[in-house]
From TrEMBL, chains A, B:
One matching Pfam family: WW
Keyword terms of this UniProt record: Coiled coil
Ranges for domain F-BAR: 138-399
The keyword Coiled coil belongs to this UniProt entry's keyword annotation: yes
GO BP, sorted A to Z: clathrin coat assembly; clathrin-dependent endocytosis; neuron projection morphogenesis
CDD domains hit by this protein: F-BAR_GAS7 (cd07649), WW (cd00201)
Organism name: Astatotilapia calliptera (Eastern happy)
Region (Disordered), start-end ranges: 55-74
Protein name in UniProt: Growth arrest-specific 7a
């Protein structure tokens, strides 16, 4: 059972968590702007009045941003993150740093000329925007490598990165079942072997051998039964300590849980796609409105008229509304993409942890297998020791004594006949 | 192959080999008699003129023995013994002593009132005659305990002591064959086990496990094949080092040799029986002649006559002849019994040696069995060591790296959409 720890990361407050570093550029910043360094050493700029944050050094003559065309930054202050934390490998400090990275790299804007959408998900163009640092450097973490969708091996349908991760876990369940099957086959082989040895140990062959040699032979035959017991014990332990655990590790609920993750993430993608459609629709509507405004403005330049001026005012108003609509749609889109992003990170971390657990659990149980093998050979070796002992004690003279006492016909020797 | 050493024991010469001891009886011996002690401390008496030897102290008034009625002693001086000596346990000194015992106890006479014939072999009555010392004391030797015939377990036919010894050797041959059969059955069991393990090692189960865990799993499967090889090697060695030798030890010639012994001894017994019959016949003839003499002597007492006197002379001559015949028959009988005695001793010693060899040979080869068992378990144990090593090296982080490198879909993270 994975421990779920919920950690709320409050919006990142640059004033409190990062110290300003030396500016390489000596030009003064425009009024209202300050500059800071993230824990990873990245310089960023914050506008204290608009709360705008950006990687790009604002130019001195930057005007107050015009809302419809300004780069809209989702304020990091407004975001919260919930993390699924596992008990291992996450230190509080590292956790914070991770979250800073998420917040900063996720929510800082990139110029729209440098964005591309792939299946409704928005990415920076390669080489554009601030270089993205890995969320978990040096770890080859799932949360760093499965963002884009790809064609599946057949090349026909699309597979999300998340589905790749999920499939791996499901595959793991199948592999553990196959391992259990293998162990089961070994068990059957051992039981057959034990049965054969046991049967042979009861053989009456050479049972008439007597004396110390007969004892040694009897013990030799018996030792086969002892060996059989050792192998039977081995197969029983294989069953309880290796096969059964491999079969029952992560029961039916596991698949259900994975399915839940699957559906949840898929729903978020559907929602994202739908909001992307809204953005496109609003974008088109704005373009129409702007074109309409342009046309009407041209009309005014040709022929001044009160009607035209009024039309222009109306058109400008509609254009502004369309701009507002677009902003709202983009905002909703970004919120959904944010939500999906967070779910992706936490769930892929969960899957990563499950995989680590799976590997370690299997390793442990296969080590149990080798331990049982070792034990078996040692026990088996000790089964011939009594035979060794008796063979060492084989004594032809003693055997002759025993046999002669039992079988002698008469000890009085003949003498000469006498008259 | 038994080493045959021929040792000729010259007739025992009391003068040279035994010192006279103190006489408990102070009465003087009759003329011509001397007294000696055997190496075992038995006192015996020798008549230097007649070469008569006896355990009984001759009475002072003993007359010169009358040949027909005298106790006829086979002179030890005339006997020679051939011994089948084996290389072990016979020291020259002990050998001599043994032979002395044979000579003395065998050939010294016992009064005919104290003899009994069992199946034509002549024994002293229990409690009569000098106490017989074992030929090989403290050894439970075959040559001491198989002199009389007995009824076989069914109680119908008669079995000679020698036949009991021979049967034991033949039985030994059968037992070794049964042991070989047992080993053969073990070999079959091992081959079956090896075959099953080998087959399972090729199983594709969980073959899709990758990374360090996959390597460990692959080696685990392979180790089953290695185990199979160990067991196959075991079964091969069992065949060449235990089964085959057990089958071929003492080939067909062995039975032929035993048969030869059997026939030889049986022939001597037949000869003895026939000579015994002759003795009985001669005894009866003598009795008839003596009765005839008696009758004729009585006739003379009734009525003296020349004819009767002549008849008596004739009858007396015939009686003497019959006495001589009887003596000759007894002599021949005793010679045959001697010969049979010697053959019995040497052949039973041979059989005894064969049995010692048989036991030791089987002991050696069964110890080879246990050695192979030990080796097998040790080799088998070492087959899981590479698996242990790889399991120890299982590293979920490394496996994740390998898998992610191979399967990642894209590492660029999404950013906010921007207009």
């Amino acid at each position: 059972k994975v421990e779920r720890a919920f950690i709320i990361i409050y919006p990142f407050t640059p004033e409190s968590s990062a110290a300003p570093t030396e500016e390489t550029d000596s030009r003064p910043l425009p009024p209202g702007w300050s500059s800071y360094i993230t824990p990873e050493g990245l310089r960023y700029y914050v506008n204290s009045s608009s709360k705008e944050t950006t990687w790009r050094r604002p130019s001195s003559s930057a005007e107050a941003p015009q809302r419809p065309l300004a780069r809209q930054n989702s304020s990091p202050y407004d975001k919260t993150l919930t993390l699924l934390a596992s008990t291992f490998s996450f230190l509080p400090a590292a956790l914070q740093q991770l979250c800073f990275s998420w917040v900063i790299t996720r929510h800082l804007s990139v110029s729209s000329r440098f964005l591309l959408q792939i299946n409704c998900v928005t990415f920076p163009l390669p080489g554009e925007g601030p270089e993205q640092q890995l969320l978990k450097p040096d770890e080859w973490s799932y949360c760093d490598y499965f963002w884009t969708d790809r064609k599946d091996p057949q090349g026909t349908t699309l597979v999300t990165g998340f589905e790749v991760l999920l499939q791996k876990q499901l595959k793991g369940k199948q592999l553990q079942k196959e391992m259990a099957e293998f162990i089961h086959e070994r068990i059957k082989i051992e039981e057959e072997y034990a049965k054969n040895l046991s049967k042979l140990s009861l053989s009456p062959l050479a049972a008439q051998e007597e004396g110390t040699l007969g004892e040694a032979w009897t013990q030799l035959k018996k030792s086969l039964h002892d060996e059989a017991e050792v192998h039977l014990k081995f197969s029983n332990k294989l069953h309880t300590e290796v096969e059964k655990p491999l079969l029952t590790f992560r029961g039916d609920n596991f698949k259900k849980d994975l399915k839940k993750y699957d559906h949840h993430i898929a729903d978020l993608r559907k929602q994202l796609a739908s909001r992307y459609a809204s953005v496109e629709k609003a974008r088109k509507a704005l373009a129409d409105r702007q074109k309409d405004l342009e046309v009407k403005t041209q009309q005014l330049e040709i022929k001044l008229s009160n009607k035209t001026e009024e039309d222009i005012k109306k058109a400008r108003r509609k254009s502004t509304q369309a701009g507002d609509d677009l902003m709202r749609c983009v905002d909703l889109y970004n919120q959904t993409q944010s939500k999906w992003f967070e779910e992706m990170v936490t769930t892929s971390m969960e899957l990563e942890k499950l995989e680590v657990e799976r590997i370690e659990w299997i390793q442990q149980h296969l080590r149990q297998y080798t331990t049982l093998r070792h034990e078996t050979d040692m026990f088996n070796q000790s089964m011939v020791e009594p035979v060794d002992q008796l063979l060492q004690n084989v004594d032809p003279a003693k055997d002759r004594e025993l046999w002669v006492k039992e079988n002698k016909t008469g000890d009085v020797r003949p003498v000469d006949m006498d008259i």
